[in-house]
Amino acid sequence: MLIKVTIFYKHNSLKDVDRDAPSIYAYTADEELAERFMSERNMELFIKIKKKMSISEYKKFNNACYKYRLEIRSMYTKDPNMYGKKQIVKVLSTWGELEKISLNPDMIYKELSRHLVKGFSNYKNEYKDVLNKLAYRDARDYYITTHYNTFFQSVNNDDLVDITLDEFGMFMYFFGNTMR
């Protein structure tokens, strides 16, 4: 018995720094997921290849390339109708995409904090309360602590784990360029 696998490679315009050839971006043995990927993603960026594999070949491929397997995943995002509330959206993504936005908080805080270098005292008092609710100071202090490692040593990085991130927002921030 053969399994039909759809593999999406990065187009040469997206080639990695260390590679000259396209690299795998995603794959699935589920035709519906392949169709959904093609309808949601900008296919000018990808090369689609269909390949038939034996069960043993597919198991080896799946074990070696699990980060690229397409699955529908639940991600938190802000509820547009209720401030401070979150909702779950179903997103077709690879494990590698999910890993980048969900399982690597240091990378996320570093990316967010690139936009937070402005001093907190520069804001008007009415904005400071809102910024505190958004954990601006914590994220900024995290950035300063990890990049300059001199001041703000009192920041407890474990406290930052309690900040709920908009996973879908981060997904779109990092991978929105691949979407239609």
Description of the structure:
Residues 150-155 have low confidence and may be disordered. It is elongated, with a radius of gyration of 20 Å. Strand 4 (70-78) and strand 5 (86-94) form a beta hairpin. The two termini are 35 Å apart. By secondary structure, the chain is α+β, with helices and mostly antiparallel strands. The protein has seven helices and five strands. The strands form two sheets. It has a three-stranded antiparallel beta sheet with strand order 2-1-3. It has a two-stranded antiparallel ribbon with strand order 4-5. The chain has two domains: 2-68, no CATH class; 95-178, no CATH class. The protein has helices at 31-40, 55-64, 95-102, 105-113, 125-133, 136-148, 167-175; strands at 2-10, 24-28, 46-54, 70-78, 86-94.
**SS element count, helices:** 7
Helix content: 25-40%
How far apart the termini lie comes to 35 Å
The shape, in one word, is: elongated
- The mean pLDDT is 78
Task: Spell the H/E element sequence.
Answer: EEHEHEEHHHHH
Write a short abstract of this structure.
The protein is α+β, with helices and mostly antiparallel strands. It contains seven helices and five strands.
Question: What attributes does this structure have?
Answer:
single chain, 180 residues, alpha+beta, 2 domains, 3-stranded antiparallel sheet, two-stranded antiparallel ribbon
How does the SSE layout of this entry go?
Elements: E1 2-10, E2 24-28, H1 31-40, E3 46-54, H2 55-64, E4 70-78, E5 86-94, H3 95-102, H4 105-113, H5 125-133, H6 136-148, H7 167-175
Antiparallel strand pairs: 1-2, 1-3, 4-5
